[in-house]
Design brief:
By secondary structure, the chain is mainly alpha-helical. The protein folds into two domains: 197 residues, Growth Hormone, Chain: A (Up-down Bundle), CATH 1.20.1250; 229 residues, Up-down Bundle (Growth Hormone, Chain: A). Helices cover 78% and strands 0% of the residues. The chain contains 15 helices and no strands.
């Protein structure tokens, strides 16, 4: 039985993705989020299950985070310098996915070789799983969105599937990790067993993504001769970065992604301080987390229809507008728990579309590279944008500590001084509000969604003339 032909999107671009393609592609994000979720639990594992010093672990993790950000740029160059006639992105799902699955077990198998030896082991395994294998998988995987389809509608749907799958995977594993390992004995051996199962899932998901992915804008099942594809000449790294910063659309994505990741970091860590010092009960964080699941689920459900109806840019403008309004109301009712909780639902919802669409916007800016410079620089563009995102998440977490330190935060006090409350208001409400306003202004100038079809026609005309 022949497949029903796929139509075109609202801009007249041929669609190539079917439901199984979206599902298979999203399995790559499943692998990545499974890895990042487990890595996020390592501080607790090292201190409470292995008995390592908290200060040494904190320093080690910071070093690994810095290396992780810089290896993105290195990986981008490796991928963009792939020899002509070879697949650039898809093979890395296997090359990095399989060893990453194996490393999921090894990072918990910390041997009893003394404090220094354990710290060295933890450092090496952390660098390998995050700065090497995770990055070697993530950069090519994010780049696949750009080459898999030319339809912005399909790219946005891919982004939504990826974000939803990754979020669900991360949430399930984060919630289930402690109860499951405790049921198996709660010791290091239990964590090793859990890591073994997670490693298998990471490898299987990476294999599914590899099998269902393509490096061309064709339907699955279409036979493609990679050697016949058009390849572009690699350009020096310094020149590539210079071109990217002259691409205003890429710069917009970089800044918006940076700011949104700072907001994610602030939202993830600020609630405990707010509930403890403003409402006087840090147990309310659990209730806030439960309530926050509602707008998160609604966000992933509604972002698809919003994109189809409004397009990428208008969807972001609407969501950022909701975030701005919610934070303004939250500021004026900042000591009312119910108002804070309700507004928190809207601020959470307002972050979901950007989470889903950052890849789509990056892909559009990459298409603009070809129009402006004649080269796409896919992996380098993705790696530099990813670098900004990792820096942003680090800043988001660190901002809280910096601001509390600046006002002389003292956790032993019974009541928060006025200066401490102002710091909490600052990183919980004021900074996110200002960043949402900046993102709204920047995205309002991102007009590629409208102009890209004509630019593609111009690129095609140039290529035809040069043949």
């Amino acid at each position: 039985m022949s497949k029903k032909p796929l139509g075109k999107d609202k801009f007249g671009v041929q669609k190539v993705m079917r439901m199984k393609d979206y599902f298979g592609d999203a399995m790559g994000q499943f692998s990545l989020n499974a890895i990042s979720t487990m890595v996020g639990q390592l501080t607790y594992f090292y201190t409470d299950k292995v008995g390592m010093a908290a200060g040494a672990i904190a320093t080690m993790l910071i070093v690994c985070k810095v290396l992780d950000a810089f290896t993105d740029l290195i990986m981008g160059r490796i991928v963009d310098n792939t020899k002509p006639g070879k697949e650039r992105y898809r093979p890395w799902l296997i090359r990095a996915g399989i060893p990453a699955g194996i490393m999921m077990v090894l990072m918990f198998t910390v041997p009893d070789i003394g404090a220094t030896g354990q710290l060295i082991y933890a450092t090496v395994t952390n660098i390998l799983i995050t700065a090497v294998f995770y990055t070697a998988m993530a950069i090519p995987y994010t780049s696949l969105l750009t080459v898999r389809t030319n339809s912005q509608e399909e790219r946005a749907t891919m982004g939504t599937f990826r974000s939803a799958t990754g979020y669900i995977a991360g949430t399930i594993f984060a919630i289930g990790l402690i109860p499951i390992t405790n049921a198996m004995g709660g010791n290091q051996s239990a964590w090793v067993k859990f890591g073994f199962v997670m490693g298998i899932l990471v490898i299987l998901a990476a294999l599914i993504c590899y099998v269902t992915s393509r490096e061309t804008a064709t339907e699955s099942g279409t036979v493609v001769d990679i050697s016949a594809q058009e390849t572009e000449k690699a350009i020096p790294f310094k020149e590539a970065i210079g071109k990217l910063f002259k691409n205003k659309y890429w710069v917009i994505v970089l800044v918006v992604n940076l700011l949104s990741c700072i907001i994610y970091g602030l939202q993830a860590a600020s609630g405990t301080y707010y509930c403890k010092w403003i409402f006087g009960n840090d147990n309310l964080v659990g209730l806030m987390g439960t309530i926050g699941m509602i707008p998160t689920i609604l966000g992933f459900v509604l972002v698809g229809p919003m994109i189809k109806k409004l397009g990428v840019v208008k969807t972001l403008l609407v969501s950022f507008g909701i975030g701005i309004a919610a934070y303004v109301v939250m500021f004026f009712g900042r000591e009312n728990f119910m108002l804070y909780a309700v507004c928190g639902c809207f601020t959470t919802f307002s972050t979901i579309p950007m989470m889903c669409l950052v890849g789509t916007m990056t892909a559009m800016s990459i298409d603009y590279n070809e129009y402006k410079y004649g080269v796409r620089m896919v992996a380098t563009s993705q790696s530099a944008s990813s670098f900004g995102g990792k820096v942003g998440s680090g800043i988001g977490t660190s901002l809280i500590g910096w601001m509390l330190g600046a006002v002389g935060y003292n956790a032993s006090l019974a009541v928060a001084p006025a200066a401490t409350k102002m710091a909490i208001y600052g990183f919980s409400i004021i900074i996110p509000l200002v960043f949402f306003i900046i993102m709204f202004v920047l995205v309002s100038r991102f007009n590629l969604e409208r102009d890209l079809p004509a630019m593609r026609e111009e690129v095609a005309r140039r290529k035809a003339q040069n043949k």
